[in-house]
Amino acid sequence: MTNIEADVAHEAVQQFLDGHFATLESLELIEDLLNDEESTHAQLERDLENASSTTEALRDEAIGITQTLHDKSLALIDLHSEVVGASTDESVSAWQFRDGTETMDLVADLAAKLESYGKLSRAKTYIDALLAVEQAKQSARQSLSKSPQGMLSAYRMLIDILAAHCSSGSTEPLTSGSATSDYSADGPPQPSNLLEYIKQSVQEIWSEANKAAASAQSESLSKLGWPAKMDLSSAAAVGAFDSSFSTLAGLDLITRAASDVLARCGLSLRADDAPPLPLEHMAGAVDIRMRYHFESARTTSRADKPEWWLSQVLGMLRNIVPFLESHVQRLVDGTTLPQVDARNVFICLVLPVVQRKLAHDRAEYIRGGLVIAHVVHELADFEHTLRDVFFYDGPSVLGQLLADYDLFTAWVEAERANAVESYMQTIAEPNPFELIYDDDMLGADDAKPSRLAEKVVLVLEDIAERYAVVPSCMRRLQLLSTAQFPILIALVEDIEGEIDEFSRISLAFIRDTGIANAATTKTTTAAPQSPLVSQLARLTSWYQTIWYVEEAADDWNNSTNYVDLWAAVCQRAAALGRSTDPRDWRMDCDEWSDADRVLLDEPANQPLVNDDWLDGGIWERSIGTLRELKQRVLDLISRAINKDVVGQLRAYRKKSTWAAEDIDASADTNISIELSGLLPELSSVLKSLETMVPSRAFSLLLRRLEAELDTFLVERVALAHSFSQSGGQQFARDVDALTPAANDIPLSLDEWGPTVTSPDASDRETELLLKKLGISRLSVKEVRSLVAHRIDFDRKVAV
User: Fold this and answer.
1) Neighbour tally for 22: CB within 10 Å
2) DSSP three-state, residue 435
3) What is the pTM of this model?
4) What residue range is the signal peptide (predicted)?
5) What is the dihedral angle through the alpha carbons of 565, 567, 573, 576, rounded to the nearest 10 degrees?
6) Tens of pLDDT along 441-477?
7) What residues does each domain of the chain span?
8) Dist CA 725 CA 704 (whole Å)
9) What would the pLDDT profile of 536-557 be if each residue is shown by its tens digit?
């Protein structure tokens, strides 16, 4: 016996003892086991005697044939000598002496005997092999239930027989062309198929032994409660499980040790990386239980409720993982099989159940569309539990699901269609841009959403929440590009269409039609409402809609989910080269390949080509577009107010009494009558506008209005008319009323007018004086022109 054989035998004895006598109570089984072994041994001795008798008879027959051939050979030699010695004529062949009949008969008989002897010799070799195979098979089958170690020994014997014949390649046919390609169940195989017969015998015994041991393990597990909550109170059930576990481990060990022989003979029983055989069969009971839940008409099998059947898997693991971590792990550690984490390996063996369920429901997922998002979310939670609670570190089922191109495409299309439908339903409703919250619910500097703005933000955030659990950056970017960005683009295009339509309508026509055609809004002012207010409400609702979505996009741009996506596209751009701008990632998004997936999902931490990318983001261009659109609306609001106010100042511009000396003294405290209707209306408009836009935007609009009024008052009034003192005072009161924010001039015209108009005054001195007076927008030339229009001042200067 070689050292290897001795080690294997020692291992077999050790496993036998560990499997059958793990507890004190199991020692009581020794007598029964010895009796079984003695009975088996006696049967084997009888079989051996029968085989020896057969072999001895064949050997005697072979010896007799050999002796006959020997005698015939001697007779032939004598005959040859007699013929050659009696010949005296050298020209006559010795074989032509007599008629040659006896010689030819002898040669023919000798050839027949030699052929028979060869056949018999080969037949004896094959019979010996067949006898050994049959004895091993019979021994293995007799030991399946009574003596696991005897079965393992017989299985090992078959492996040895296979190794001997596979290496010798003894497949020579008994007679040329007489071998068949198969063998009959009614008799032994033809010699040319001996190797195939041995291989099939090994396969049969492996299958039978594997099935018997697995059945014993399954029966013992059932007594322990598997795969429900385990009950280890029965020592007999635990001992039976340990014994069956040891048998399966021994069968696995012998097969692994013979992997080279089996591979050389073209026989595959176990993969090199296969998990321990006992754990495979332990997972089989779980598979049967889960088929009952997952592939029947039970409620736990609903495709649209993955949380129901996934909870069954988690519940099963909670029941049996403690048993795997303690008892089963000790059994695995006690073998010479590859050392593994029993818990983790078992979870890997169970997950194909989940994969099969997903494949079973695949067609329904594709038809359902958005149900895929629900499945993905539940599967992500399931894997999270596996990794955080059960410390699973194997492959991701979710990743394999998302690798299904047709399934993922169906999900993307369903997200896109659902988002478009939600958007179209909202914008088709009456007044989609109407603000949905009262003014007092939000601060002046808080964006106030319209119904459409809130729907857009909710739809985009819902999509993002559904795909946030997707591990692949490439898949998330594809969902972002296909399902989210088009909604934002549609919003921008619809608002641009509204702006274009509004811009085609003259403000004069708006004032004439009043508020009948204006959009409705909520307002808290009780002052008389100008027709302009309703139009401003329409404009500011667009402004608030854009602002609300812009604020949301800005928040998204800084969230972890989108920061990761931006980092991925930046790393891809860095890997592709300096000419690539990460902001252009959408251009070829639909054509991304596996190479792009690697760059996006497994970046190699390439140095960023442009540091400005760090300040960007996935939504950067969208935010820029929204800001430009918001500014366009703000410009339109400013234009509407300014044009309306200037239009109402037409009569004031044409006023011709500025130079009159006899202005009624009672008017010293009053504004011009031409402004009496405008100012209350303008005040009402500005108060309403202040509640419609943020304070910063309102200040900007107010400054633009003041600039427009300044330009109008200077160019259209002050520079267009001459003023008396009383007319100038009236104009000053009007200016103060129109521009309440203007600075008061601390000095009278009489005090600083001569300095400005003096031909000796330098421009530099005049600029300093005007700055002191708070006149910053007018040039020195304009100030001098205004002063020159003061009639009484001109007379004083002249005197």
Assistant:
1) 18
2) strand
3) 0.70
4) none
5) -100
6) 777 788 889 999 999 999 999 999 999 999 999 999 9
7) 3-86+94-174+187-209, 277-403, 410-624, 654-798
8) 30
9) 999 999 999 999 999 999 999 9
